[in-house]
Amino acid sequence: MSFKELGLKESILTAIRKKGYEKPSIIQEKAIPQILAGRDLLASSQTGSGKTAGFTLPILQLLSNNQASKKRGIRALILTPTRELAAQVSSNVETYGANLHLKSTVIFGGVNQNPQVRAIRNGVDLLVATPGRLLDLHNQRLLSLANVEILVLDEADRMLDMGFVRDIRKIMSLLPAKRQTLLFSATFSDEIKKLTKEFLRNPVSVEATPENSTVDKINQTAYRVDKKHKSDAIIDLIAGGKWQQVLVFTRTKHAANRLTEKMNKCDVSALAIHGNKTQSARVKALSGLHNKTIRVLVATDIAARGLDIPLLPHVINYELPNVAEDYVHRIGRTGRAGAKGEAISLVSVDEIDYLKNIEKLIGQELPLQVIEGYEPSDKPGDVSKPAAQKKSNFNRRRNNKNRNFKRKPKKNNSK
Ligand code: ADP
Ligand code: MG
What we know:
- The chain is of the alpha/beta class.
- It contains 17 helices and 14 strands.
- The strands form 2 sheets. A 7-stranded parallel β-sheet has the order 3-4-2-5-6-1-7, with helices on both faces. Strands 10-11-9-12-13-8-14 form a 7-stranded parallel β-sheet, sandwiched between helices.
- Magnesium ion (MG) binds next to helix 3.
- Magnesium ion is lined by residues 51-52, 154-155.
């Protein structure tokens, strides 16, 4: 499938070629024709899968096709959670719309509003905005949303995480009821579904989870480790393997902070990114990993969303995610051109259920192995009643897959 076959016109195709894209990503392939057809749309795919162009390209085309409309004013509104994302989206709009006669601008908080107000006064067809500044200027009657034809909620999951739901509701109430609404998100949670029900009309839903072939290109290993030994084990793995660029995932920001502290004490330079850090702190941490000024980035799933993380040689799940899809998103960050990436999971006894769900999702078994010196002592039987089934499955896997225990301890008294 080519961009041309998706129905985009020549002036936009030229801009895409100049940008260097050869073919649409999966989510672009699925979303663009629906948006061009005027449908409301819910699109979810992992970070870095090209969602921005997925909505920007067709919106630019729709706006430029109906340029005759006499009314000037904001015809398309794109909401994003942070000013960095707003700026990113806006620069995409400018790139893809370079050959069109449309005007766009971007507004966000934390800076003087006057230049933004001036730009809006000069007339814009497309506005990229963070919710706070948008409402602020609207309250001052410095902009009108009465002519909006298309609304995009970009990184909707992050907007919810950041507590923007009330602002979003307020903004919705200021928009014409007759409009096209597009919601883009990295995840497909219940909250997202609720938002969709509330604000989208008869929407088409498109999804693009990384193909299994992506997962196939990744060496996945799962180790059974006692919870209390996980931090020592991970530091040993990283130091022992002399790994330089490692992305580590935890479930909570507490765990991220604690692990980062411990790593730094052990001379493995690490930074944590989580929901309490600003986007610019996250971007800075990411570039530290990129430039090799730090060795490890410890992230929560929420923090990793909305970041354009380059492919890294090693991804470690310090804690398994309780949502299986997140596992696929996490390990999708590893892999190198031509080479296999490595994804490692440290699994404590209470996480074996999570592992089973992950195995089901990826259609692949991840036999549990043991790291020498970190033989688990908490038996599956230690967990309370409901885990009885866990035990039997665990043992079955252990017996069947014994040959996969690469790093089996040679002797047990080695501690
Ligand atoms: P998302 O919003 O899904 O996280 P982005 O829209 O930020 O992803 O895109 C991630 C990266 O992929 C950007 O650097 C973008 O320029 C690039 N990209 C987008 N579409 C394509 C494509 N069709 N071919 C190659 N690269 C693309
Ligand atoms: Mg995005």
